[in-house]
Design brief:
Blueprint lengths: L3 E2 L5 H17 L21 E5 H19 L19 H27 L3 E3 L4 H5 L10 E8 L2 E14 L1 H5 L5 E4 H6 L2 E8 L2 E3 L2 E13 L3 E2 L4 E4 L10 H8 L6 H4 L11 E4 L7 H4 L2 E8 L5 E11 L2 E10 L2 E6 L4 E7 L1 H6 L5 E6 L5 E6 L3 E6 L4 E7 L5 E6 L5 E6 L3 E6 L4 E7 L7 E4 L5 E5 L1 E8 L16 E15 L5 E6 L3 E6 L4 E7 L5 E6 L5 E6 L3 E6 L5 E6 L5 E6 L5 E6 L3 E7 L1
Parallel strand pairs: 5-7
Antiparallel strand pairs: 1-10, 2-9, 3-4, 4-5, 6-11, 7-9, 8-9, 12-36, 13-39, 14-15, 15-16, 16-17, 18-19, 19-20, 20-21, 22-23, 23-24, 24-25, 26-27, 27-28, 28-29, 29-30, 30-31, 31-32, 33-34, 34-35, 35-36, 37-38, 38-39
């Protein structure tokens, strides 16, 4: 019998199949007894394995024992082939009690896995314990149990959880684990979730039992003609997309969170405050004026990048802006929209991709976008069209940057990895582990010799020559680990000569560092809320910063003095970019607009 996944035209299914293949490859690595190969402790990321040990395991074992004792006082009829003396001397009620205890422990573990991984998205439906135990003709508990859940916000959506007990890593490795699915189950349930419960073992934590979410399937994507069929790990979709998919099934309630991105923001008149004409730095800052607002995004804008693209001898200043579900390309010389790079398949399926970061190649012909769906997308700017989707991250991807030669792009995110992709081979050439923290920002020096990552309260600096041998994921001691910020480091930029690093943080400050020594030079204070974006002018005289206080501030690089403040956005200023000449500063906001500020 063969299982057939239907609807392969749906790109989100292809995405989750690719991630499932990556998950199975990780299991097949050597030393799979080391469970850290599967474990992920990053909030918001899928963690495939869950361990039960110590007091928590003892507690559910005791609870199962007590409940089994009660059930055994009124056991079901003796099975037809239950062994009789002298071959078997254990009374059936006592044997049934042990089977019930094993089943109840299984049920408790499944319940805790579902609560831990899916929280309040689902709720368990009551089932008759004895009827659901499913004993064979000799009275032994079968290795597979099924438990019914539903979506908490939409009870009409039924979820069936399959738990295969007494399994092992080899069963997953060799694709030998099988869950039985019937036609009735396809009709009665909308989502099927598949769990493996391993044999108990003695590990580092003592007596342990482990559970793995092997994957899931929407029931309408599974087709077979027989009354039942068997599903194996390789035919499943990656469980990291499970909560995403379940939420997409629920009719969304109108909440403040849902309303905020779509309501019309109250307009704020643009205003510019610059130091007076007799100020010592007036010649450096000059005079600025507001030029234009670019409208077209229907959701808040998260990121910007600028490039000068040469075509048929003409140089066009191109701006890219990333939002939920799309990236827009703009001609800055005209202030006009060129095209929209749509993520429509993810929107249609409910797997909406927030485009968190975008990066132009040095020649301006290629654009990289990364976001919430854990992928890296390569776009051709001239066409424009999607060239490829790269899968290796296991969580939200938050930042990206090209190497100066344009041959590789670096990406980082919640899975605590920085990956350097060879764009010719379309595969990971360098894999760097950040060990203890997600990457919220990264920057490469103009000569490509220095990599900097920004995380929660930490900035790490590496010489890229250190990383050249990291074809597999490795932890390498950074050149510097800079501490000074007290919150997430959201934005980074490096000076042209590679000597200076500027960092912006949710602690409301901007800091300037000397990269070679790791010394903090100065801290810029003036914002009254989180700093989301920084940009350095081409002449390296001015630092621009954007904040959740809805303002843009201009600072003198050499002295740290505040020289100007721009207002006009009605929500968080999330991204900033100077044009090549430095005569224009472009800002983007969650108010769905892009504003262009021009030196007059």
């Amino acid at each position: 019998m063969q299982n057939c996944i239907a609807g392969m035209q749906m790109d989100w299914i292809s995405l989750l199949q690719a991630q499932q293949a990556d998950f199975l490859q990780r299991i097949k690595k050597p030393k799979t007894y080391d469970l850290s190969l599967l474990d992920s402790q990053v909030k918001g990321c899928h963690s495939e394995i869950m361990a039960f040990w110590g007091d928590s395991l003892a507690k559910i074992q005791e609870l199962s024992h007590q409940q089994a004792e009660i059930l055994a006082k009124n056991p079901p009829p003796i099975p037809p082939e239950y062994p009789e003396p002298p071959d078997w001397v254990i009374p059936y009620p006592k044997h049934f009690q042990q089977q019930a205890e094993d089943y109840l422990l299984r049920e408790q573990i499944v319940e805790q896995v579902m609560a831990e991984r899916l929280g309040k998205i689902v709720k368990k439906l009551p089932q008759d314990t004895i009827q659901n135990m499913v004993l064979d003709d000799e009275g032994n508990l079968r290795g597979e149990s099924k438990f019914t859940y539903c979506l908490a916000d939409s009870p009409k959506h039924s979820v069936l959880v399959y738990a295969a007990d007494g399994e092992s890593f080899n069963g997953i490795k060799k694709d030998k684990i099988r869950w039985t699915v019937t036609q009735d189950e396809l009709r009665q349930h909308q989502v099927l979730i598949f769990l493996c419960l391993f044999y108990p073992s003695n590990g580092k934590l003592g007596y342990e039992k482990h559970a793995v979410i092997a994957g899931f399937l929407p029931s309408n994507q599974l087709e077979f003609s027989e009354t039942k069929s068997y599903v194996t790990p390789s035919s499943l979709l990656y469980a990291g997309g499970l909560s995403w998919y379940l939420e997409s099934l629920t009719a969304k309630k109108t909440t403040k969170k849902d309303i905020l991105p779509t309501i019309e923001e109250q307009a704020i008149a643009e205003s510019i405050q610059i130091v007076s004409s007799d100020h010592p730095q007036k010649e450096i800052i000059g005079d600025w004026e507001f030029w234009q607002t670019l409208k077209g995004h229907t959701r808040g804008i998260y990121c910007l990048d600028f490039a000068s693209r040469c075509h048929n001898g003409n140089v066009t200043p191109i701006l890219a802006s990333g939002s939920r579900g799309e990236t827009k390309l703009w001609d800055l010389s005209k202030g006009e929209l060129i095209d929209t790079l749509s993520e429509a398949p993810w929107i249609a399926s409910g797997l909406v991709d927030d485009v968190n970061s975008i990066s132009f190649s040095p020649d301006g012909h290629t654009l990289i976008s990364v976001g919430a769906d854990s992928t890296v997308k390569i776009w051709h700017v001239g066409a424009p069209e999607l060239i490829d989707i790269l899968h290796k991250h296991n969580g939200v991807v938050r930042c990206t940057a090209f190497t100066p030669d344009g041959r590789m792009v670096a990406t980082g995110g919640d899975d605590r990895k920085v990956l350097f992709w060879d764009l010719m081979q379309r595969q990971v050439a360098i894999a760097l582990s950040l060990d203890d923290t997600a990457a919220h920002a990264l920057a490469l020096s103009p000569d490509g010799k220095t990599l900097v990552t920004g995380s929660y309260r930490k900035i790490k600096v590496w010489k890229t020559a250190q990383l050249s041998e990291c074809s597999t994921l490795q932890e390498i001691e950074p050149l510097h680990s800079l501490t000074g910020h007290s919150h997430i480091v959201r934005s980074l930029t490096i000076s042209i000569d590679g000597q200076w690093l500027i960092s912006g943080s949710w602690d409301q400050t901007i800091k300037i560092w000397h990269l070679e020594t790791g010394r903090l030079i100065r801290t810029l204070k003036g914002h009254t809320d989180r700093v989301y974006a920084i940009a350095l002018s081409p002449d390296e005289q001015i630092i621009a910063s954007g904040s959740a206080d809805k303002t843009i501030k201009l600072w003198h690089f050499n002295t740290g003095e505040l020289l100007g403040t721009f207002t006009g956005h009605s929500n968080i200023v999330t991204a900033l970019a100077f044009t090549t000449s430095g005569d224009m500063l472009v800002s983007a906001s969650l108010d769905k607009t892009i504003k262009i500020w021009q030196r007059s």
